Amino acid sequence: MSTPSLLHQLEQQLARLDTRTLRRQRRSVQGPCGARVTVGGKHLLAFCSNDYLGLASHPMLTTALAEGARQWGSGSGASHLLSGHYSVHDQLERELANFVDRDAALYFSSGYMANTGIIPALVGRGDAIFADRLNHASLVDGALLSRATLHRYPHNDLDRLEQQLAKSTATHKLIVTDAVFSMDGDIADLTGLFSLAERFDTWLIVDDAHGLGVLGPQGRGSLAEAGLDSWRIVQVGTLGKAAGLSGAFVAGHRTVVQWLMQKARTYIYTTATSPALAAALLKTLMLMREGENLRADLSALVVTLRDALRLQRWQLLPSRTAIQPVVIGDSEETMHVAQQLEAHGIWVPAIRPPTVPEGSARLRISLSAAHSHDEVLHLANVLNHLEEARA
Ligand SMILES: Cc1ncc(COP(=O)(O)O)c(C=O)c1O
Known about the structure:
Blueprint: H1 5-19, E1 36-39, E2 42-46, H2 59-72, H3 87-100, E3 104-108, H4 111-122, E4 128-132, H5 137-146, E5 149-153, H6 158-167, E6 173-178, H7 190-199, E7 203-207, H8 222-226, E8 233-238, E9 248-252, H9 254-263, H10 265-268, H11 275-289, H12 292-308, E10 315-316, E11 323-329, H13 331-343, E12 346-347, E13 350-351, E14 361-366, H14 373-390
Parallel strand pairs: 2-12, 4-5, 4-6, 6-7, 7-8
Antiparallel strand pairs: 1-2, 3-9, 8-9, 10-11, 11-14, 13-14
This protein binds pyridoxal-5'-phosphate (PLP).
Pyridoxal-5'-phosphate binds next to α4.
């Protein structure tokens, strides 16, 4: 029997992805997250995770998770607004708000869900969203779901943003930005964005997925580093990156948080995450707060890598964060270099369109406090050598 045409179309589209080297593949890691991992039986030095402080396999967290499960059971059994909200969730939300020094916080199952929930809760038809062109996909999807008009401004171009805001006659306005850009590693001008938000009376959503735990005093994030605090700032933090577990939270003024609890559909219509996870997250907040040594180690590794790389043709993007991208440009060449790195026992992910703009395929090196200086120097030496060999 011939393949039904709907399936056939998918097969053709998959084949097209193959010819453009754009089909994504998953790889199953055999063991815990760390600087060294086993994949497909191979032992690799990994620069891929967002485990910036090396907490994902921290013994205190694995113990906290196991103890949490013993005390709270494994599942929550329902959504938060039915019977799935436990006192340990309350405690976590209080501690999260305390950690980032805001009135209140709401705990979501993931950053993707937080972002796709809060944007439609704050703006809708007739309103306008102003978004950095390099924002994370979850912020773009949240904007699309809201049905507000979406204006995207060129990356970090606050002059263009100002022009767009000045022209807008929308009822409510919202500026939304990554704090640390996930594929570029650079940091948004949060002070400049906040002053535009005040001038044009807009909300400002700051997604600090990659800054929380890493930047600011006690790892309190990019907004703390910039010294910004206002009722109009809605802050998103994710807990699957530096925090080493999973989940996310939104923090801000208590009225805003109350409103989001009433209106964010990705909070309301989903099973609450396990209370055991919430118990372990309490422990990770403590580790992040006390992680000054880990943050210092990470910063030193960033300097080591940047000093040791001697790239001519490939471009190491300016970044002082754990995300250190090397732009190669062509998708096929980027894939090839990633494969060569792997042949040297090093795993760095190749990031291709549509995750990054066409023609800017890159290696996304992410550093972790779990790496040693020798491991980072090894990566730099191999990369220098590979670029030279391809010249
Ligand atoms: C900037 C940014 N926001 C949100 C997310 C989504 O967070 P989560 O992985 O918790 O869904 C990510 C993760 O990749 C991210 O990089």
